[in-house]
Amino acid sequence: MAALTLRDVLSFSCAFFACFHVISGSRKGDQRHERPADDEFSGSAYSTDNTLLIEHSFEPGLNTKFTNRGTLNFRSLKAGSGSFNQATALTAGEKRKLREVAKTDGLYRIRVATKMGSPSDSEEVHYVSSFTKACALVESRLSDHITIHADQSGNVMGVHVLPLRGSCDQIEVESSALNYFNTTVSLEVTVPAPMPETQAYIQKLEEEKAQKAKGNSGDNRSFLAKYWMYIAVAVVIVMVTSGQQDAGGRGGGGGS
């Protein structure tokens, strides 16, 4: 076996450290790309099943016309918060209508569908709505808070809108502050109350009914059937007493 030269030793050492560096780097890369398992709220994607289209109206009176305002998005029905996405800025006409309604102390209205997700073309859509003073929304510079009330199945039971400012102080607001909504979103899911133990309650009622019926159930036999022994004893006593009286009467008559 030939003796190893210094060059051979250096080449072997370099190759060894290069392999070690590649293996170590690949392990770090694998760890860097690992994602926590079973994390319901990981990522930034929202399910389309947990999305609500929100519409609004600046029209005065009861015959209001609603237009698209944006979407409310929730990662899960368990989430306590959501996000609002506004597709486009308010147009000049929409801002003008909003200012006009605010000057007359009118109302700003919103509405959402009672079911989350995108409805089909043949599906009839039902809405829940809410309103607030338009002047409060304008003076809040379109900053508001929207709360969605839903059950555990995702059915929307109510909606509530609240501007950042709760009063109207006739504050002048520049038009550039009315382009986009600054909206925070909350989701409140109702929790059903604990159900009573109906089976145990019904069983208890049946037992009480049976005991009551047993206590009220009297002897339905006739009078003679119930008391024939006492009647027989009384008859015997009467017969004996009558016999003694007859014997005494006959004895008294013979001595006179």
TrEMBL record:
Residues 1-25 form the signal peptide. CDD domains: EMC10. Its main location: endoplasmic reticulum. It is a single-pass type I membrane protein. GO terms for cellular component: EMC complex. Coiled coil: none annotated. PROSITE patterns: PROKAR_LIPOPROTEIN. It comes from the Eukaryota. Keywords: Endoplasmic reticulum, Membrane, Signal, Transmembrane, Transmembrane helix. Pfam families: ECM10. It is found in: Endoplasmic reticulum membrane. Transmembrane segments: none annotated. Belongs to the EMC10 family. This is ER membrane protein complex subunit 10. The lineage of its organism: Eukaryota, Metazoa, Echinodermata, Eleutherozoa, Asterozoa.
